[in-house]
Amino acid sequence: MKHIFSLLLLLSPVFLYSQTFKIRIGGAAGQELDISAIPATLTFPNGIGSFEIKKEPADNPAQSFRVVAGNTTLTFPTDGDFHPLSFPADIREIDITINDAAGAVTAGPFRLHKSPEDTGGGADGEVKIDMPTDKTATEYLVNTLFKDQIYDTEDVGLKLLLTSRNSRRTSRYMGHQYIHLFFDQHGNSLIRSIPLGVGKDNYVVHVVYLVPKENPLRIEYRAVQNTADIEEGTVIRGDGDLQNSLRLQHLDPDKKTVTLEWAHTETLFTPSSFDINFDIVRNAFQLKGESLEVTSPVVVASKVIKVKKIYHGSIDVGVLKTSLENPTFMLTASDADPNLQVIKRTNSGSRVLASAMYTFYLSPVVLIEKLLMPEKVRNYKLEGRSFADDHKIYERIYPTVGIGLNDRLLDNIFLGGKWEFIRGGSVFLGYHWGKVNTLETEPGFEFEKTEVSQAAFDLKTNMQWKGAFCFGLNLDVRIIANLFQATAAR
Question: What end-to-end distance do the CA atoms of the chain give, in Å?
Answer without folding.
Answer: 106
